Amino acid sequence: MSDGILRLSHAEVRVPDLELALAYYVEVVGLVETDRTADKAYLKGWDEHQHHSLILTDSPTYGLNGLGFKVMELTELDRLAARVEESGIEVTRHQPGELDLASGHIARFAAPSGHVVDLECGQEQVGNGLSLINPPPRPDDLRGIHPPRIDHIFLLCEDVDGTTSFFRDVLEFRLTEQIMADDGHQLATFLERTHSPHDIAFLTGPNGGFHHVAYWVDEWSDLKHAADTCAHHGVDIDAGPTRHGATRGCGLYFFDPAGNRNEVYTGGYWFDPDDEPTTWTESEMGRAVFCYRGQVDQRFMTVHS
Amino acid sequence: MGILRLSHVDITCPDLELAAAYYTQVMGLDISERTDDRIFLKCWDERDHHCLAIRHDTRVGMDRFAFKVEHADDLAHFESRIEAAGHPVQRISRGEEIGQGESIRFELTSGHEMELVADIEKVGGRLPLVNPPPMVDGLVGIAPPRIDHLLVHAEEVPAVARFFTEILNFRMTEQLLDGGGHQMIAFLERSAKPHDIAFVQGPNGALHHFSFWLDDWDHVRRAADILAYNGVTIDIGPTRHGITRGNTIYFFDPMGTRNEVFTGGYRPDPDFPTITWTDDEAGRAIFYYEGVVNERFATVHT
Hints:
heterodimer, A: 305 residues, alpha/beta, 2,3-Dihydroxybiphenyl 1,2-Dioxygenase, domain 1, nine-stranded mixed β-sheet, eight-stranded mixed β-sheet, 6 helices, 19% helix, globular, B: 302 residues, 2 domains, 17 strands, 36% strand
């Protein structure tokens, strides 16, 4: 029915003040809270049918605990888990509900980049809040930025070449774009499973580093609304609204109260499996990241969690 | 594995010069190849040879539509499934058809010829593959980045929709049922969007419209400006659909074939539950703002 990894499913983010973070993600970002335990909150974009696309975990630090990709078939989960094991990486298997509320069958492993990756099949569906009979195009009680769904995640790692090979060769991602250093190694790579410019991207930096998680919005005017919303709530805007050279998408970056970077993103293009990737040279890296300014500011390159 | 997306639509018209002028200057497509009786066009961001082929003929109509499959061996897979379902399949070898490689063709119960194509000649998009700018300077007309979907008629929607879901592995995102529970409209997808093809009850073999993607609602407004400026007949819009939630404008090419440019919608996973519209809400299903379907939209097709 559907082969391999379908799409990015969720991210689990650490926050030192769960109440504050929850207030921000519900009131400002406009995600929907679907569940709550003593130390975790589960959130989703309003149009997502799955139980969660963001898990907030109470923790003394901020940063990323892990990320999950959705797989449609259990047989595909088994096949991909076997491929990861054959590559020499240990995989643990988990039953539905074992790791998280509403979680499905999970194969968990540490990617060569140092990030904990879950392949998940069968997370509980809770619906998007709209009727399945004669639905209006949107609910009328949306708050804040209210993106419909998660889009991609951007991570740091020491060896972008090696990590990219793992994601391509083992997890069957396709390379859409790369930023090449003058010495020929990959400074940054963009990888997809959904025919979009990226479901995940890697930038050279410390292993396990988390740059941002991005939610989709439908168009440029939604980024203006997002910037208005951030400014109104006193949220620290990192960059944008602006446009990327790589991915051609438009984005707005800002920080949650714990210091985790968020993005809302739109645009991009469709990528066929037989399309050739785009290459950026080191001298054009500024424009690859921020097309309008042509340079990357210090905070964007150095602040991560 | 399987069907990837809509590849191209092959239409006919009596005036190739007029068609070429309209589709390049108003719609803003690029001509990738031309023969004595055919023109092949593509959008600026498409890398494949064509998304629209126009053949000279005394009448306006559609020869066929084609979907792209992900792997060459998908063709053999579908060939046997389609033949087992009772449809004769014709093989088109590399070199037989301009701009494309190995393909199969078969007739649907809706009277349309459908094609599955494995490899299409890559002619490249308008952007370079090294340090590309995000846009092309000097695009003319509406200039959509790519084709999105098509909508065709069928006398028996349930039968052809079932063929698409059971044999071709499409997923049904939305449907409209009449008061007796009969399926009047079916929306079907392979590329995680509200539709790659839709069937609406009507005469077999007919084309209602084909549609190009735009990134933004504001681009739909700009399309309306361009159409009005060029004296193109606008059918309806800019407006919004209940079905698909998309934003849209419909208009006619100079020969009377309906075009659409479209944006918005949503991203259905394969486990997306089908949305059902009832007869009494049919107006809002088609045009969410107007709540009624205009006579021309309901009756004119090619």
